[in-house]
Amino acid sequence: MTSSTFPPHSSVFKTHIRVVAALTIREMTTRYGRKIGGYFWAILDPVAFIGLMSIVFSSVSHTPPIGRSFMLFYATGYLSFWIYRTLAEQTSTAVKFNKSLLTYPVVTPYDAVLARAALQIVTQFIVCTIIFGGMAFFITPFPSIDFANLMGATIVATGLGFGIGLLNTTLFNLSGLYERIFTIANRPLFLISGVFFLPDSIPTPYRDYLLWNPIVHIIGWFRRAFYPAYRAAYVDETWLISLAFGSTLAGLVLLKIFGTRLRESE
């Protein structure tokens, strides 16, 4: 058998790039419509939440747990959580959403996952840039930003969200029971991840239990970038990176093993 029997690697790669690009455009028009107003709602949701929380908590307290701006405190907490949550949610349903397209041999489950993840990452970047840029320009100028911590926390939040979503892409399709259990267990995550409080204020041993939640570490790492005096000594960067890498690797392996089954399942 000669090498000409198989298509060149560059040709296969270009085909996947074109497929992912087409799926991304399809995702964009389906989720946001063909008008710029669709993106407006993606921005309005986190802005409305941050504004509401700032108004509510500023009415019962003179200062936030750290710094002087309630809006900045809740923006750093909510958006870092939002990056993880939305990417995990969107990625986990990528195969289910594109099930009809997987009947075409050229479209693989990997393409569907990458397309959804790519669109969500771009959306997150635009939303976070607009929100933090608008806050800095119109409301509360930031004293300084540690871009190393900002990039580190953002990359890990993105990696963990993608990894968990990639795992759930397969596991949700294999077991409806697991999907229900995961959804129920995930509901209180927003309240116990440090969006509204600092883990430093929680007494032991409850703080030790809380720190098993990786999102607590991500939010603490993210807040370091905007609060130079906040050390967040509880943040375990190595553990977070290991979780993000491990979940992504495990998700890729599961998708490889069960890829054919995902194509054929109803």
From TrEMBL:
InterPro entries: ABC2_TM (IPR013525), ABC_2_transport (IPR000412)
Residue ranges crossing the lipid bilayer per the database entry: 38-57, 69-87, 117-140, 147-168, 180-198, 239-258
Keyword Transmembrane helix: yes
Domain (ABC-2 type transporter transmembrane): residue spans on this chain: 20-227
Keyword Lyase: no
Keywords for this protein: Cell membrane, Membrane, Transmembrane, Transmembrane helix, Transport
Gene Ontology molecular function, alphabetical: ABC-type transporter activity
Compartments reported by the entry: Cell inner membrane
GO cellular component labels: ATP-binding cassette (ABC) transporter complex
Name of this protein: ABC transporter permease
